[in-house]
Amino acid sequence: MGEMKDIVLEYIIDEYLDEDDEDEVSYDSPLISSGIVDSFSMVSLKRFLENKYKITLPDEEATPEAFDTVNSICKLVQKHLG
Amino acid sequence: MAFDNKTRTLFADEIQQIRNDGLYKEKRFICSEQDAEIEVEFPEGAEHKKVLNFCANNYLGLSSHPDVIKAAHEGLDKRGYGMSSVRFICGTQDIHRELQNRVSAFLGMEDTLLFPSCMDANSGVFEAVLGQEDVIIADRLIHASLVDGIRLCSAEYDTFKHMNMDHLKKKLELHQNKRVRMVVTDGVFSMDGDLAPLDEMVDLCNRYNAMLLVDDSHASGFIGKTGRGTHEHFGVMDGVDIITTTFGKGLGGASGGCVSGRKEIVELCRQKARPYLFSNSLAPPIVNASIKVIDLISSSTERRDKLEWNTGYFRKKMEEAGLNMRPGETPIVPVMLYNAKLANDMARDMYAEGIYVIGFFFPVVPAGKARIRVQLSAAHEKEHIDKCVEAFRKVGDKYGILGMGKDEIIEKYGT
Description:
The structure holds two protein chains of two kinds.
Chain A: H1 2-16, H2 42-53, H3 70-81
Helix pairs in contact in A: 1-2, 1-3
Chain B: H1 5-20, E1 29-30, E2 37-41, E3 49-53, H2 66-79, H3 87-90, H4 94-107, E4 111-115, H5 118-129, E5 135-139, H6 144-151, E6 156-160, H7 165-174, E7 181-186, H8 198-207, E8 211-215, H9 230-233, E9 242-246, E10 257-261, H10 263-272, H11 274-277, H12 284-299, H13 302-321, E11 332-338, H14 340-352, E12 355-356, E13 358-360, E14 370-375, H15 382-398, H16 406-413
Parallel strand pairs in B: 3-12, 5-6, 5-7, 7-8, 8-9
Antiparallel strand pairs in B: 1-2, 2-3, 4-10, 9-10, 11-14, 13-14
Helix pairs in contact in B: 2-12, 4-12, 5-6, 5-10, 7-8, 13-15
């Protein structure tokens, strides 16, 4: 789980933050509710998770709430990894 | 079903939540023509107040221009009030065709199709043109109407960081296996007033075989030396495949929009775009007035030149007064305050000083980037701008932010 959290965190920093961004993101930082990731651009994160972990995340589960922190994202991925 | 108390409470609670979140939009009534000087009833029932308008999209000051009003009257007299039809049944007049041809020539495009609004153009264009084998790659800060249109389309979509060309390049490389790639951006972004780097985007689209769609609603008529838009500004008139734009801002300010571009794309919209097929034709007075607008701005650059001067003068005076602005060159000037309450309070005090501006904050703009958005117009005279700057100086002084940069304002008020 720890390794997955680092992978997801690294992707989020690379995909959503600019080099001059002052936001610091940790495992429990709010992503959607803080505006770092918006519901429109969340699609790249979902695609990354599906490709990386060879899973399918149903739209009804890939909600802004489920994607709001690295912790909650990894919990959702773990559930689908079985 | 009856609208019983339980149902009513359900909706009333939602409205209350919007109020609690500070996102409730108050009613404001303009009791005059749209112009630089307007009369406003706010709050509802209050006496009319004369204020200077610095928050309209009336960039070229044509909303109440006598020639435009006269042309609207002529359209009404010669072609009637409405079409009572969608375009393809019996809703297309000769003046609809003429406006489409005039817009194509003005924007330098092969063909144009009118829509009831640019919101409709953006809602319809993607679904009409792209399918499941294709991908849309969009700037993250595109207008909400483009987001809605992209979501209505079966093509896959992806996003890139705002105006970040390295990130766009990475996404274009990632999606080389798709049938068609379409890159989507605003020409001028409505909240920040920044210009999408279309020269670099055209270059990337050529290198990675992608089409480029630009929503130029906040640019058509005044960006570029002859007001053709963002593609003229960057010298890439031939490089943009599709432009969507509106007649509701610089180009007269009434309503209506269009898709302008490669003739096959426009033809597909004519055959398949749902807002075109299932919504009424643009009304004849608006069509005729829009033709007059194209006449006016094709024959002289006087109005866009005045707007450019007004923008430069406003920025210079605001800088001298010590206000903190996002750098830029378009008539959208964000006065950065970072704190939502500060933006709201200052906008309210500006109104008391006779200047109509609005504060914007999350989720309309990113968290911690609250601002008052000022929009210049060719209808503004120098004395209007002086009065606006003086009000900003007075209100800014009251809140102790004059001469402060970002860090100092955040230190004083937080985000």
